[in-house]
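From the shared-data thread, chain only:
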Amino acid sequence: MSWWVVVEEQRGSGDGRSWSLSDTFPFEDQATAEAEALRLAREYQPVYPWSEKSRRVLRVAGGYLVIVDGRTSTFHFRLTLGEEI
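Structure, as tokens:
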């Protein structure tokens, strides 16, 4: 069995915003997946916003929710940990 970190993020603008699966990262064990999820929460560069001013990382059930403030708008992405069964 392996562990995965899945990145989902908002894309589009205005009422056209939608969630999209952006990336997946496989790992051999849970501890490594958890450490990488936290690193990605701090370092992952989402598609939007283009010009990041700040970011807030929230630990939520199963991973992290990251709120990214840009120059003109705010977007968010989430990192979810999952075990392949």
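Strands lie at 3-11, 18-27, 52-60, 63-70, 74-83.
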